[in-house]
Design a protein that fits this description.
The complex is a heterodimer of chains A (about 170) and B (about 110). Chain A is mostly helical. In chain A, about 75% of the residues lie in helices and about 0% in strands. In chain A, helix 1 packs antiparallel against helix 2 and helix 2 runs antiparallel to helix 3. The chains are: A mainly alpha (about 170), B mainly alpha (about 110).
Chain lengths: ~170, ~110
């Protein structure tokens, strides 16, 4: 049952991810990316990471993708014109991706310890958000504050970048 | 005991690697700068998936998942949101200056 759910959602995720890089209309690409993120959130649920799944839907499928769609509409992007593809670029890109995939299969098949079954959690209905919060605010308090500063800096930077004329 | 009905860590890592490869392919092969950006997001999500999988399969002594991985994913999502905001602002500024999002038209720095 778990394996079936995992397979369905990971196949959906990979199919929509392929749609992102294969479709020519930027709006369809963005919609495929949204669906891919939602399917990834479902895969997170099969890993009992409920908080991360909710954050994934809220932040990625919500905020980030709305930003993407706003920009696509603001720039008024049409369907990409077919241009003469450079064969060397395609061969190079394909070689890099193929090399990465072959290295990955070698690494994964060489590690026998990876075949472990998911161990049972001691408290299956544990309060996931509270536990993540404990880890976040006790062990990672300083990085959390620094992330806040980073968000402030990026907000200021975006406002500055979007000014009509930089002086 | 090997239970066939449960996904193993290798399943998650393979899916994560495939997602990363798809994102890498998008970054390398597409010529629209917005789609390249989407490929970057896919690669970040592949890293998130493997981090959550490692966190779930590495139980602590008391049988709870190791939440450090999930906290790291939380940070990655936050930084990615900031990165998307800044990157899209740069793309808009670029579009204002050059009227294009096609990377082959942006060759001012090309040697």
């Amino acid at each position: 049952m778990q394996l079936a759910l995992f397979s369905i959602f990971s196949l959906l995720m990979l199919a929509f991810a392929l749609g992102v890089i294969l479709l020519r209309n930027p709006v369809s690409c963005a919609m495929c990316l949204v669906m891919s993120f939602v399917a990834l959130a479902a895969v997170f649920v099969t890993l009992d990471a409920y908080f991360i799944a909710v954050v994934q839907v809220l932040v990625y499928a919500g905020a980030v993708m709305v930003l993407f769609l706003f920009i696509i509409m603001l720039l008024d992007l049409r369907e990409e014109k077919r241009r003469r593809v450079r064969l060397s670029a395609w061969v190079g890109g394909g070689l890099v991706v193929g090399g990465f995939l072959s290295a990955l299969t070698q690494v994964i098949s060489a590690l026998p310890a990876l075949d472990v079954v998911k161990p049972a959690v001691s408290h299956p209905m544990a309060n996931d958000v509270a536990l993540v919060g404990f880890a976040l605010f006790r062990n990672f308090n300083l990085p959390f504050q620094i992330i806040g500063v980073l968000l402030l800096v990026s907000t200021v930077g975006v406002v500055l970048l979007s000014k009509k004329e930089l002086k | 005991m090997f239970d066939i009905s449960m996904p193993t860590l290798a399943h998650y890592l393979i899916v994560s690697g495939l997602l990363f490869a798809i994102g890498l392919g998008g970054v390398l092969l597409r010529r629209n700068i917005l789609i390249i950006f989407m490929g970057l997001e896919l690669m970040l999500n592949a890293a998130n998936l493997s981090l959550v999988a490692f966190s779930r399969f590495n139980l602590l002594a008391d049988g709870m998942p190791n939440y450090n991985g999930q906290v790291l994913v939380f940070f990655i999502i936050t930084v990615a949101a900031a990165e998307v905001a800044v990157g899209l602002a740069i793309i808009v500024a670029l579009f204002r200056a050059k009227q294009t999002t096609h990377v082959e038209d942006l060759n001012t720095l090309k040697f």
